[in-house]
Amino acid sequence: MEKCVVIYKSRTGFTEKYANWIAEELDCDTYPLENVIHIELSEYDLIIFGSGVRGPKMSGINFVDKTLAAFPGKKLIIFATGATPVHESAAIDRVRTMNVPKNSGIPFFYFQSGFNYEKMRGLDKLIMTMARGIMRRMKEKDGMQNSMVAAMKNSYDHSSRESIEPLVSYIRSL
Ligand SMILES: Cc1cc2nc3c(=O)[nH]c(=O)nc-3n(C[C@H](O)[C@H](O)[C@H](O)COP(=O)(O)O)c2cc1C
What we know:
There is one protein chain. The chain has helices spanning 14-26, 62-70, 89-99, 122-137, 143-151, 165-172; strands spanning 4-9, 29-32, 46-54, 57-58, 75-82, 108-112, 114-115, 156-157. The protein has 174 residues and is an alpha/beta fold. The protein has two domains: 4-116 and 157-172, 3-Layer(aba) Sandwich (Rossmann fold), CATH 3.40.50.360; 118-154. The strands form two sheets. Strands 1, 2, 3, 4, 5 and 6 form a six-stranded mixed beta sheet that branches.
């Protein structure tokens, strides 16, 4: 198989967990984005970049543009982790179109995670409290809205190792 590396940006640990699962499954190296300056990216045939969604931009996504500019034609794959359930296809499509560079053809995968308030930084906690307040005030009758507000109240983790299977199969098929 090709030599691959997983580069991830993780603020509360969800993407790091997925990065480690992917690296283990595919026998790739893995590094946090913060350490990328110490890595010889040209050594790798395939670069997988993953990070968490922050309404709806992915953290550190400009790494992809920089890599495309530095290594034209390099094989790249992007994965995002987020609290949005996988069946919310419109929201996930939005994450894809907001983050995958246009006409790049870079494959994109989405994995559900959750919220980790214990590991969240102060500003992020504040943003989440405000977001919950706004959603509550929207007073949508629709049950979906209410269940989302309830789900956002406490930390939870819906990540699962099985969900990386489509990405792993895709890479094995290259
Ligand atoms: C400030 C903030 C904004 C977020 N916005 C979104 C969002 O728009 N959509 C989503 O699905 N998840 C959102 N989340 C949840 C994160 O994407 C999720 O926890 C992600 O897995 C975090 O990854 P990390 O722990 O690797 O940083 C948000 C979390 C925070 C703290």
